[in-house]
């Protein structure tokens, strides 16, 4: 490979640089350039155990061209640029370890077009998934990717998000048709088209999806939509053991049942959800499922699923077909993060995110569960198990170095276990700040060096979200 | 962006270089290095109107490590390297305009692993799709991507192939989980994993899929498999006009009917298929459809489709559920290329491949059909219309410069029409040699320059399949 001069390891910009950039941005953007401590800290907010690392300034952009101007001003001063959507990412993506300018995209929140007849839409990056679905509802369409949080669609693309519906509808990788992005050079690039498929050159769309703001800032997205199913049926099924629940998932997937969602909560997580959401779920391992289709199709799927789960001792079921009842069932799943957080007041929730081939799921979850016990840590489990993806959420007292050490060691073993099973260190949260050390283990040195060379080519001065994804 | 020194425009290697490389390869690979005129010409075979451009030598590789050795020998001499699977690509991908070494991967034809429980398999690149499906059949699994030709899976990944099943099962982009490839530097890179999803860094798998051998040679693929459906039902439905057929397709897709295949043949193509495959299909525009699912699900889908098509004057149907009958129906579709070829003995078949958003399909096909008539050319139409993708196949007498000019102008208008409708110049065939001129029109200069910079970074000496995809 060609070896462009190595990108400089970042340092924080000098006071003079910060002053020059903020002056230039203030002159152009007026009171949309903010440097107050509170706003800066809010934009460095992080749900990891990395401390808050605020940017030097925050600027609220309103158009692709404004993002271009901001990037050009920053590029001229080699000032870091960090894209900000809603701040709900779980790996410190919006932190600013080397300072710089946080580009807040929340005011770019317009749905620019809905092409109902093509099942696609064009949105600005600050539109959240709930806002989009609200906008679409009258047209019988929805955007299926649901990571739980009401994240911005730009942020979801940047982290290659997925969530509960991915087992049927895919991830952001599969549901972004085209993008507009501002590159580190300040150039505006448009990738893809509204065609459903294309073989016209390199797949720049998929290069940007999952690049976590390190290759460019996404300023417009063309998204694939789905029709709201004629019938939806949701169920909750308790199991005697977590292994039985996982075995039922494996057989469900292997049998080709087109389940729309299939989620696992372990008994620890269920107890937390009961407490947080005032529910009365049985405190055993649970599977939450949802089927989408015609009335007859949904009934047929539910019947088959019932047969499978019965083989593994699952039941009795609770079913819901009305929207409000389904929402109540799913509320527990959506609230897992906050429910876990409430289990141990004062503790930090550290979200893990491994994903393994489905055949290894029961084994991986089972070993992990035993590891949690052996490590003497508190860590509920929830997961998008239809994809082989599950989260443990260790609750850590940050003033206890011994506990931090035990959780750190547990996470190392969890990731090593998943990778040994041909899985990945992150199914959907991304690499961000604290998973960079797993990249070489997972990808090997040649693939990692290829990623680095792409980064150096596109962002030679390492201004785009430095300190994330790759230690360039 | 960083600007590595521009890659040199290629010239053919000198006689000395050819002699040195072939001597080194002969010393290492013995009679698996072939320089006979016949074998070289066979490896430069092309189904386009670009003349045969044979490589200087052909070497038959048997392992990833052998491909690595070949690439290293070639790289040391800046000798072009062209990957060869089955030679069925339609855009001259295997031609060698600057000479070099054709790396024939057909002996790398082993299925290395089938993980039935995970619905995936690992194959060498020379395995063809039919060979894989033969291998899988006893396990109730199949690989759904079907471009018609019995192409190699490495070649299908390299061109981001799709075909008849893509409307339901996606394209190679969606069905390749992981790859091993040899980069132009000779390094072996492994991308992705067997996990169903991952957010761990840049999507190198999708960067290689569709790169047409210009960024690396794929030497191993992990592919997603599907369960053979419990029930399959296939039908043929005639329509009074091509517009009526397209309108029926649009409504089918918009209504969310999960059709597995939906193919259009115009009356010209039907006549050609009748003649070639000894069929008695009604010589009007036809839709061929296939439904996959449970017995009840398939029956429900067929009924709904019948209702939709009746609205547009479609019918009467011919249905087939038994495997032999379905094969007979689909034989017509699989043979369109050869059937077209037989319509005008001595003519060259030039395959076009535009794809548009589904809402524009009827309009695009209709205008194209009128353009064919106005241009005084012979060009049957067939297409994967569920994706908005269709092919016209002008039959050109290569000794008639006036006809060549008319067909060339027709293709320019066809592509311009598709791009103006927010579509693409190629849905599935790739760019190869003759579509490079459409890249800037479709992607714009910024995206094209980004692609070029990726190529220059990964292949600074432009040894991998030079003269394809990008005029670097």
TrEMBL record, chains A, B:
- Key word Oxidoreductase present in the record? yes
* E.C. designation(s): 1.1.2.4
Q: Keyword Cytoplasm on this protein? A: no
Task: Give cofactor(s), names only.
Answer: FAD
Q: Which UniProt keywords apply?
A: FAD, Flavoprotein, Oxidoreductase, Transit peptide
Q: Which domain of life is it from?
A: Bacteria
Q: List the residue ranges forming a coiled coil, or say none.
A: none
Gene Ontology molecular function, alphabetical: D-lactate dehydrogenase (cytochrome) activity; D-lactate dehydrogenase (NAD+) activity; FAD binding
One GO term (biological process): lactate catabolic process
Q: Please state which protein family the record places this protein in.
A: Belongs to the FAD-binding oxidoreductase/transferase type 4 family.
Protein name as it appears in the record: D-lactate dehydrogenase (cytochrome)
Origin organism is Methylobacterium nodulans (strain LMG 21967 / CNCM I-2342 / ORS 2060)
